[in-house]
Amino acid sequence: NVERPEEIDQLRLNLPALACEQQIMDAIHHHDCVVLTGETGSGKTTQVPQFLYEAGYGSNDSETPGMIAITQPRRVAAVSMAERVSVELGNHGHRVGYQIRFDSQTGPDTKVKFMTDGVLLREMSSDLMLTKYSAVIVDEAHERSVNTDILIGLLSRIVKLRREEGKPLKLIIMSATLRVSDFTENTTLFPTPPPIVSVEARQFPVAMHFSRRTTHDYVNEAISKAIKIHEKLPKGGILIFLTGQNEISFAVNQLRKYSKEPTLKPAQVRLSAKETVMEEETVDFDLPEDETDYDDDNSDEESEEEGFEEEYDGEETKLHVLPLYSLLPTQEQMKVFEKVPKGTRLCVVATNVAETSLTIPNVRYVVDSGRAKQRVCDQETGVQKFKVGWVSKASADQRAGRAGRTGPGHCYRLYSSAVYERDFSQFSAPEISRMPIEGLVLQMKAMGIHHIVNFPFPSPPPRESLAKGIELLQYLGALDKEMQLTDLGKQMSLFPLNPRHAKMLLIGNQHGCMGYVIAVVAALSVGDPFIPLYELLPPPVKPVVKSDDSEDEEEEEEFTVEEKERQDKLRQRFNQVNGMFSGLDKKSDVIKALAAVAGYDFANSTSEYCKENFLRSKIMTEITKLRQQLAYLVASTTRPDAIESTTQALSKQLQPPTKVQLAALKQIVTAGYIDLIAVRADSIDDSASVGKKTSIINHPYITLMPGPEKYAYIHPGSVLSHLGSQPPEFLVYHALTMGDAENAKVRLRTLADTT
Ligand code: ADP
Ligand code: MG
Asked: What number is the ipTM of this complex?
């Protein structure tokens, strides 16, 4: 008796998933585990939960009263899909809820629950049999996030146990049309392969247009391609794939500027690496030479460029430009689903969020940079990099497919077909093969899984990373020599945190430090809240030039006097703010973050405060939420008799810490990063001494855990880089990073000096 809004009924009729309802439900009825694949946008995520709900899953007077869980690897998707399904379910909309790390919208009425895969995994550590649920949908399984992989491994066993108990749990693994053989042909995982149901989507043909040459400058290339599409081709949305927030903001600004005054075209601006040398790790505009191919064909290919044969029909004069990336506030993200203003053409500039998890309506043109930013972690040396690299062929094809949802479309690939064939791998590697897994190992141990090697992983983690994880947990005291969980380890596993941070909380109760430790751990867990200067300054550009100007007149223009003044003021203010935050302690990035968290709290957590002090607003909000959650968790384990008052005491506004507390805080941080200590090289090796004038970021350090090179150096973004005197003899860091540049140094992302 679900009554849906009329326009939803209409829209649903066109969804391929709806035509397969019978087939899907039959398969679920006859099997405890079903794999469902289908083209992105075919209605898997929005419809299958509704099929289950209408078939009586989650209904009190049925044999399957348990809730329906739907997991997503990304928070954005969990929230937006829950909202969508709630709308679609009309008079039953209140049955849909969601839970993500920082937010929960669920109640006693909730029967359909969207969540991140991490949240469900947490629930399993206290209720392994998932007794509250009658069906679990693991969505976006092709993304192969660590959590999704583990969920599938665990669920393959739980489903069997629930069957034996006579209270079956249904498992539906959903994936875009990508390789699913890792699940279906893996006999440790599923001794009898689960049936595969494929939703056949009407996919319209997408004409593929490769670039003739592949350039570094894909951001500008994407911008001009979009403008050209807008000016020359019939209506239909444009979707641009870039790699990260900086690039996206830049492109959105340029396109909006153009849209306001179409006679002015953005000049070909080279986003040079020069401005960003200070932050070499984050240079995301250039790829190393060897990853791209150049040919000598520098001829102007405009006139004969293919893919622009259709005629523009002149209906939409302006571009409606929207960014889409994960750090964007949720309301901003949801704008991509809204109706575009009359007479405008939608143009979304996105990261790979838009690849499979969110389907943006009415896209006809895809502009694909072919790249994505990925965190890669060298298993051997522990060096982390955010690396812009080529996506896989499977991903590139997914991206192209976004153009063919509502009609025939075009995909403009900003790389040559030779590069695609030669340099793109077939599929991307599962995350478990690239990331440290100590958190996972601890959680599995806490669930009673002792022989992790025997766990039915869809793809097992590399042996070294498993060994590393175990070793670290032993350092932290979570596992004993026999690799058994200790009492400390058990307590650590109760926190939804990296084991290092959990350890810090557990030893944080000294000198009245707990409130500070909670704030510090929240900041370390969520991420860096400080916006670096190079993100605030515009790239060294030639301003917009008239499009009619002939090439020769386009000379390098300088910034205007006013602009230069503005930039000077900004720099000044930036240094002032940074000086303020590091006022408490000049040697510790952790204490600097603590100062920011405390200041934000004092200023009533406003976004103005963030703006004035160059802090990332979304990160600050999340830190605040996590502080609350952690305060509650700590209170409920340490003072079960006075949870509420203790929670309040632990998350109240922070007074500046005393000297003793500062020292204690640093020791607590060091205990969490006990293996990541570096020593100034000259203090143990005379030959490593440096001159008095050597800048701080050029002082060599030796890490206790051997890194990829003999020496590592303080990262230019560290507070220590502003220290007037000799850098500390010992320091603790949280990661080693390395830029892409040829002579890039190994850098220490510092936390504090140790005393
Ligand atoms: P799949 O999971 O198979 O990729 P989805 O169920 O996510 O497909 O999407 C089905 C359709 O619903 C798509 O056409 C998509 O554009 C539309 N849709 C999803 N979320 C929203 C929303 N919030 N507003 C409007 N349309 C949406
Ligand atoms: Mg989906």
From this structure: 0.98
